[in-house]
């Protein structure tokens, strides 16, 4: 079913009344389990547009496969380059308050703190902080709520309270034509200190994903596909969850920071 932008006084009032960002964090939470997917990155070729077809202005696509284990407040990502070479392990602890990155090719362990949390993962447009259960409540405060005159939809403006290259973000809301889940964000725009738009994160819901347990595709209650348009890097990146297993057995040692390099 194709989504459409709407003006809704009910939605506007609901967003304006909600003084916390807890629900926003809940919308992006993953149930405990194993998730497999990929990140696809396409880089635009710099230079003049001229009269060349659009496809000739785009660089080659790069596909990165990932496996993610999630349990309670911890997540562990394995990233693989084709055909099956491990290129990164990322461990998130305490809902992303602690981020450890193991580079097996160089034998280096990184700790992502402060603005380092907003570095890009393996040259994609996704930041380290975006691959974990979102912590908007801990990172932002609501600045104001307004209606976007251009799109005729409610928009929340948030200001950062942590060290970030993006002191302001705006959330645009979209609704399905059946008016269900109409207070879920669909676009998150990030602005720099000069209030210039630098990147846009598009969030897609109700995309069918293969369930290993039931052996069939099912629609998830949380986002399963994200797209980032990064105006600084000139990249378009897509993160897609392709299959999941909520019955996967995970040992606690998976999330032991002392074992990340093994």
How does the major sheet shape up? 15 strands, mixed
Name the overall outline: globular
Radius of gyration: 19 Å
Helix content: under 10%
Q: What is the string of helix and strand elements?
A: HHEEEEEEHEEEEEEEEE
Overall average pLDDT = 81
Regions with pLDDT < 50 over 5+ consecutive residues? 1-8, 47-56
End-to-end separation: 45 Å
Q: Please indicate the percent range of residues in DSSP E strands (runs of 2 or more).
A: 35-45%
Verbal overview:
It is globular, with a radius of gyration of 19 Å. It has three helices and 15 strands. The chain has a 15-stranded mixed beta sheet that branches. Residues 1-8 and 47-56 have low confidence and may be disordered. It folds into two domains: 1-28 and 136-205, no CATH class; 31-133 and 235-247, no CATH class. With 262 residues, it is mainly β. It has helices spanning 9-17, 22-27, 136-139, and strands at 33-44, 58-71, 74-81, 85-93, 98-103, 108-112, 140-148, 153-160, 168-173, 185-191, 197-204, 208-211, 216-219, 225-230, 235-245. It starts with 8 loop residues before the first helix and ends in a 17-residue tail after the last strand.
List the main descriptive attributes of the protein structure presented here.
single chain, 262 residues, mainly beta, 2 domains, 15-stranded mixed sheet, disordered N terminus
């Amino acid at each position: 079913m194709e989504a459409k932008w709407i003006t809704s006084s009910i939605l506007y009032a609901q967003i304006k009344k909600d003084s916390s960002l807890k629900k926003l964090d809940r919308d992006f939470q993953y149930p405990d389990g194993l998730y497999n997917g990929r990140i696809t990155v396409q880089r635009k070729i710099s230079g003049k547009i001229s009269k060349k077809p659009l496809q000739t202005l785009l660089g080659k696509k790069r596909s990165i496969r990932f496996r993610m284990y999630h349990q309670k407040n911890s997540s562990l990502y394995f990233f693989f380059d084709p055909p099956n070479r491990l290129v990164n392990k990322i461990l998130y602890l305490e809902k992303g308050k602690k981020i450890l990155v193991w580079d097996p090719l160089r034998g280096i362990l990184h700790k992502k703190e402060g603005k380092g949390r907003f570095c890009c993962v393996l040259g994609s447009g996704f930041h380290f902080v975006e691959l974990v259960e979102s912590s908007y409540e801990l990172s932002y405060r609501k600045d104001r709520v307004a209606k976007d005159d251009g799109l005729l939809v409610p928009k929340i403006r948030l200001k950062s309270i942590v060290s970030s290259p993006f002191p302001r973000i705006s959330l645009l809301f979209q609704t399905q034509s059946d008016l269900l889940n109409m207070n879920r964000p669909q676009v998150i725009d990030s602005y720099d200190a000069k209030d210039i738009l630098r990147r846009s994160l598009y969030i897609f819901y109700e995309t069918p994903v293969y369930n290993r347990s039931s052996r069939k595709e099912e629609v998830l209650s949380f986002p399963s596909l994200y797209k980032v348009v990064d105006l600084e890097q000139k990249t378009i990146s897509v993160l897609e969850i392709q299959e999941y297993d909520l019955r996967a057995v995970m040992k606690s040692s998976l999330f032991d920071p002392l074992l990340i390099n093994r």
